[in-house]
Structures are given as C-alpha cells and as structure tokens.
Design a protein that fits this description.
By secondary structure, this protein is an alpha+beta fold. The mean pLDDT is 95. Strand 3 and strand 4 form a beta hairpin. It has seven helices and four strands. A four-stranded mixed sheet has the order 2-1-3-4, covered by helices on one side.
Length: 155
C-alpha cells in the first residue's frame, strides 16, 4: 500500500490534532499500513509540531509499533515460562528454518513476519503460536509446515 497523506491527515483530524493522542494516531496509521511509514512520521511532526525524534522514540519504545513493513500474516511464538518449558524455543527455531527468516524479521515475499513474545497469556495451550488472531496450541515441530501452508493457501 502506498503512502497517502490524506489518510494521515484524516487520522490527525479524527483526534482533534491533540498532541496527547499521538499513540492512538500511530496505532491507526499502523493498522492501515501494517507499519509506520517515515512519511507519516514527518507529517505528524509537521502538523502536530512534535519533533520527529520524539515520535520515533514513542514508536520504538512500544513493541507493538513497527517502523518496517510487516508481513501479511504475523506469527508470534510464545516463549513464556510454560511455552519455554514445553519447547517454545525449538518451535521458534523451526519456524525460522521453515520460513528462512530470523525472529523479528519479515519474509522476502512479505507474507509472514515472525516474532517471539514473552507471553500470550494462554499457558494451558503451551507451546502456543499465534498467527494473526488465531491460536495454534500444543504446537509441535510436525505442525509447523501445516500451519504455514494453511495461511499461504488462504491468501
């Protein structure tokens, strides 16, 4: 999706141009683009009179924000205590090998972004992998390819 200054202007206006609403504005922008484009940061800075470094500080402080384009599907491998004990790290490495991408990065075809997270809050499903909003509990190495292919086939 290409950058659209009118979209960002609408986001700013929807929050009444209040500087204190910058996090919500960044959330809306990221929802649209799946990341926060540099052009959006510049536009926010100019319109709200907030220095760009301050906006980047906010965007990099919160792990929920990304300054790099995200994949169409986001895979989160839980490494919380229960998931770690039940092989979460090995599952994460399995996804890295299958997708040929390191955790924290996006595949070259922009299909998947792989992340590890500290806890997804569903320890009974350990080891847990979340793809977009779907939970895949009691994940095994054998299920990895099946999960990936399900999302590839449902483009």
């Amino acid at each position: 999706m290409s950058y659209n200054p009118a979209f960002v202007e609408n986001v700013i206006n929807s929050f009444g141009s209040e500087k204190s609403r910058i996090i919500q504005m960044l959330q809306d922008i990221q929802s649209e683009y799946r990341y926060i484009p540099r052009e959006a940061v510049a536009q926010l800075s100019e319109t709200l009179d907030i220095p760009e470094p301050q906006i980047y500080h906010i965007a990099t402080f919160y792990k929920a924000f990304s300054l790099e384009p995200r994949g169409r599907h986001e895979i989160k491998v839980c490494l919380g205590t229960a998931c770690h004990i039940k092989g979460g790290k090995r599952i994460a490495e399995g996804f890295e090998r299958s997708l040929n991408v390191k955790a924290g990065k996006t595949t070259s075809d922009k299909m998947f972004t792989l992340e590890t997270v500290n806890c997804l809050g569903a320890c009974a499903l350990a080891p847990l992998v979340q793809v977009d909003e779907d939970n895949h509990g009691k994940m095994t190495m054998e299920k990895i390819e099946r999960v990936i292919n399900a999302y590839i086939n449902n483009k």
